[in-house]
Amino acid sequence: MRRQEGEAGEAWEYDHVDVSHFLKEEFKVGAKVDACNGKEWCRGTLVGVPSRIPNKPQDSKWTIQSRSSGQLFVTDRIRHADFIQTMLAEVGREHFIGLVKNSLPPDLKTFKDQEFLFPDGTPSLAIRLRIKHIDLLQHVRDLVLSNELESNINKGLVNWQIHVDKTFFCKVFELELRIVLMEHPYQHFLSLHVDGDRLGWTTLPDSKMRFLLTIIDEAHDIFCTDGNRTFLEEKIEAPRQVLFLSSVSQNSFGAVDFPPAKKITMTQVVRSTQRIVAGAAAFQASAAEKDQIGSLCPAGPPLKAFLFESDGQLYENYAEHTVSALFFVMCIYAGLSLHKRLVLLVPNPDFLEEFRDALQRHFLTARLAGRNFKLISFTESLRMLPNVKVKQATQADNAEMILLDTVENAKGLESLIVVCIGLDQRVAGQSANQVGRSIIYQAITRAQLQAVIVNQLLRGGWLEFLGVTKFKSDTFNESTAMAETTTAAAEALTKVQLPSKLAIQVSQEDSSRREDARAIQRDPLKPDAVPPSKPMLEEGQDPTTAPEAGDKPGDKLVVEIKDSSVWDADVIDIKEPISQLQFDPRSPTGKAEEEVASLEVRKYRVSHCTLSLKF
Q1: Co-location of 501 and 357 in the same domain
Q2: Contact indicator for 572, 467 with CB cutoff of 8 Å
Q3: Are residues 30 and 90 in the same domain?
Q4: DSSP 3-state helix, strand, coil percentages of the chain (rounded to 5)?
Q5: Do β-strands 109-117 and 123-130 pair in parallel, antiparallel, or remain unpaired?
Q6: Which residue among 428, 449, 557, 567 has its CA within the 20 to 30 Å range from the CA of 113?
Q7: Is 148 domain-assigned?
Q8: How close are the terminal C-alpha atoms of the chain, in Å?
Q9: 414 and 500 share a domain?
Q10: Alpha-carbon Rg of the chain, whole angstroms?
């Protein structure tokens, strides 16, 4: 400093500032301040100041009385508490609240706003909303997560810019929803209790119980011919009312044997966006079910597909492309904590074990934009209590919990974002096709807002048509989107017949077919079920020259690429154009087109490294 003063002369002269004097003038006893109490910030009143300001800021001792608890604590970190008031004074409170109201749906009421301090010390203005309908709640959720609300408010500001906290909104949003705990195989009644930060349960003594209303969800799994429903007679006294909830499209085994009951058809979906409903419609079991269905939710984002051809290391390939899908999600929903909001669904336990190991290896090597992810199951997730503070939390405890489980374990559950991994199967016999169709339908419909497909491009598979589908970003229309696909293709391959009456007699042959389907669902990587990394070979055939399923020698045709307002499958990695489809829900007849008006061969390779440049 002395050398600089000698070289610069008068230009280097400055007035000394007494920091202690400045701080004492800025922070006087009785002032309202924000202060750090251990790991969290809170608002309080300054009741004691240091006699002198030490050289090291961390040695400063300010005494604060918490506004919420009234307790006194000593801290070395304080700051002014008038940040929000300064902003409102400059912008105008009425003007700012007006900007917020004009950015929200007109039939939504704002009835209270108050200053709020996040645990990390971020000052904010919390605005309470009066929401009367589930569709309005879904609409607000999409406005927040799409950044549309934040962008519209900021357009009306000049010198200030606000940020809408997506994670905090989701926490409040999730508290408005029901939390469901299911325990299979329903042999005992369970008593729940809190065990630290987890839910625990104990088995009650065997005895019958009486309920005013008995509700049985996923009833098609219980009332299939070989389903276990003895608990209805052994554990439950005759209830006054019984409600069976069932979906033909979620049924993997065809016929069911319901007791006589009045049938009521529910046609309005309240948890999934219109695009998710339209995308899943291609895999519905019957036209009758598809024609009646609709969604109360907003349009939502398109369903994303990551298709690839395997180089022989199947699980490593799946892990690599799943990481790419995670980067896509982190980019689209930047700022949103994925803690218990993202689910990875796989076909069976064997796939789960191999894939989990491969994915965790990729987590260690991939640059995840500073994020720390931990994989848990649905069972672990459902036992975790929300908003429970654990002292001395480790870095692992602070990780974002991502759910990784099988589609079977996801029944009756849902998540904000769902990634469907390795669910495709080759079109085969009726029993296998019924399982192949239903497992994809079940997985997609677990998503509330965003569904993503990650799959090896399987020639002759259920998802192959996505490789010849191109997203069009026109204004979305629900009826047009539903008309883009037909259930005729799925019906032709599964031949599902809706029961004309609730009591159905099932032959021994049907029962054996159902056993075959169960075996396929348990191990979809076997050759007769879900695709291995290479197609099945004829005896003596060279695996390096074997044609893919669906290809014919000398076949030169390719399938026409069609537009879709539902599916965004532009991120694909395939070497050869698709020449034939075994399942094409886009076609009115459910078969591939014989003639091609134009040929567009697309080959894209998008890795997580490319997407990470956006962070």
Answers
A1: yes
A2: yes
A3: no
A4: 30, 20, 50
A5: antiparallel
A6: 449
A7: yes
A8: 39
A9: yes
A10: 29
- Complete edge-to-edge strand list for the sheet that includes strand 62-66: 72-75, 62-66, 40-48, 32-37, 78-80
Report the residue count for the chain.
615
Task: Decide: helix, strand or coil at residue 546.
Answer: coil
Please give the Cα distance from 504 to 251 (Å, whole number): 15
| pLDDT 10s digits, 174-214 | 766 644 344 666 677 777 777 777 887 777 777 677 666 77
Record the tokens describing residue 68, joined without a space.
């919420």
Q: Per-block average pLDDT, block size 10, for the chain (615 residues)?
A: 64 57 74 86 88 67 87 88 87 91 87 80 86 82 92 91 90 64 64 76 72 78 72 70 83 76 86 94 85 88 95 94 96 94 97 97 84 93 69 58 95 94 91 88 96 95 94 91 89 60 33 41 39 36 39 54 91 82 75 35 33 26
- DSSP tag of 533: S
Cα distance between residue 448 and residue 273, in whole Å:
6
605: containing domain: 274-532+561-614
Query: How many structural domains comprise the chain?
Result: 3
My answer on whether 517 and 461 are in the same domain is yes
Of 572, 328, 565, which Cα lies nearest the Cα of 458?
Answer: 572
Q: What is the pLDDT of residue 588?
A: 62
Say how many CA atoms lie within 13 Å of 336 toward its Cβ.
25
- Looking at the fold, whether 358 and 452 belong to one and the same domain comes out as yes
Pair 61, 95 in one domain:
no
Measuring CA to CA, which residue among 599, 578, 581 is closest to residue 590? 581
Judge whether 249 lies within some domain: no
* 525 within some domain: yes
Q: What angle do helix axes 349-365 and 314-332 make, rounded to 10 degrees?
A: 60
Classify strands 447-456 and 415-421 as parallel, antiparallel or unpaired. parallel
Distance CA(334)–CA(166), nearest Å, equals 9
Distance CA 264, CA 541 (A): 54
Last residue of a domain, one of 80, 98, 119: 80
User: 3-class SS at 563?
Assistant: strand
**CATH (domain of 54):** 2.30.30.140
Residue 187 CB partners (closer than 8 Å, separation 6+): 231, 235
Picking from 62, 80, 98, the residue at the C-terminal end of a domain is 80
Q: Which residues, in sequence order, are CB contacts of 349 under 8 Å at separation 6+? A: 406, 522
Residues 162 and 287 in one domain: no
Q: How many Cβ atoms sit within 10 Å of the Cβ of residue 323?
A: 23
Spatial separation of the C-alpha atoms in residues 303 and 440, rounded to whole Å: 13
Assess if residue 566 is contained within a domain: yes
If asked whether residues 300 and 399 sit together in one domain, one would say yes
* Strand (E) or helix (H) holding 7: helix 2-8
User: To which residue do tokens 């049938």 refer?
Assistant: 263
